[in-house]
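Sample log: dTDP-4-dehydrorhamnose reductase.
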Amino acid sequence: MILLTGGKGQLGSEFQKLFKKLGVEYIAPGHREMDITDINAVKNFLDGKNIDFVINCAAYNDVDRAEMEPENCFAVNCLAPENLALESKKIGAVFVTYSSDFVFDGEKKKPYTESDIVNPMSVYSKSKAEGEKRVFTACDKIFVIRTSWVFGTGNNNFVKNVINWSQQRGKIELVEDQVSSPTYAKDLAEYSWKLINSDKYGLYHLSNTGTASKYEEGKYILEKIGWKGELLKVKTSKFNLPAKRPRYSKLSNQKAEKITGKKMPQWKNSIDRFFEEIKEGDL
């Protein structure tokens, strides 16, 4: 039996689809059923249940709002994973949680590996980096999976924002100085599951292959939908955002690829498949 937290989010909803397709038994309690920031609530929920895997997809992902809500951000991204990891160890379950490319400062010129030193620059990224440390201390049968720029049919994301902007504006400005890899939640769930079943515990990077700036990603989306407006390249500094972002945060998948024997799809291919899902009415 799998315990899935954050089941209504982008990644959690894709895990639910995957498990239903594979016939894997799981439960996905909502916040009212189990408050993961309260260790007693986690203990009480797990009591009497035969759980083999705990997969934590819950996250505080509003990078700018986190600057104003550090306590909430740390509660969800740091305390909650630690609670789940501690209880997973007690019941002998494998624990899986997700982190972010934002734990890096973006000064590197080639893809980040798991051995690179983190240097978080915002409340959000610091909460993710601290969460990584705490869960590795709390549990030994563990997978921490860093990913980047996740999009999917659940919740809000950059791809959906660009589509919405195209319907409201004749001119769109997108930044050219943030570079990473867009990652499709469906691919992330599928490849995570391959990795999780390897029993090769540890820290891994998983994102779609290839690199893109936000401008390049947006340009590809707008071309697909035939938008005829004006698209402009701008610098991140123009928007005066509360939280700092890494300029370059592409993740290397090599470690995970050696375990799974497969490469993640290219990001453009993933956006293409996302649009097929939209056509089927899942947006």
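Observation: Residues 2-155+182-209+250-265 form a domain with the Rossmann fold fold (CATH 3.40.50.720).
Observation: The mean pLDDT is 95.
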